Automatic annotation (TrEMBL):
Name of the featured protein: Uncharacterized protein
Alphabetically ordered keywords of this record: Plasmid
Taxonomic path: Bacteria, Pseudomonadati, Pseudomonadota, Betaproteobacteria, Burkholderiales
Organism, scientific name: Cupriavidus necator (strain ATCC 17699 / DSM 428 / KCTC 22496 / NCIMB 10442 / H16 / Stanier 337) (Ralstonia eutropha)
Lineage: superkingdom: Bacteria
Amino acid sequence: MDRIYGAGLASYPAGVLLRASVYSTNLRAAFSLVCADDGMPYGALSVNVPDADLAEDEILASAAWNLPADLKTVLLGTGKFVQTGRSNQVGLGRGEIWRIADPDLLSQVAAARVVARRSRPVRRAAALA
């Protein structure tokens, strides 16, 4: 995980670490942030809105109330994400739709999807007597 520095971080100057995973309900990409110095949760970069129209390599970035705007600016500045110019309603705010541009992050998400699919219970039709 890359350390990301930004103004106004709770763990400043240590920064935050970006963690990739997937939402269990629909296997969309999910990103959270943890403090780099102590591993404590910092916040969620992505939110899961099931009816949002997203491609496999896109996330719905949390609305401004969830993460400081300067941190989101720093995250975009890493080149790991690209704004698409689209947005979606998230609670009382609007979340921007970002494309995941970093091959390593895309690989982490793909691996998380494989693990999540393997851990899902297999549904089988009951045999009729």
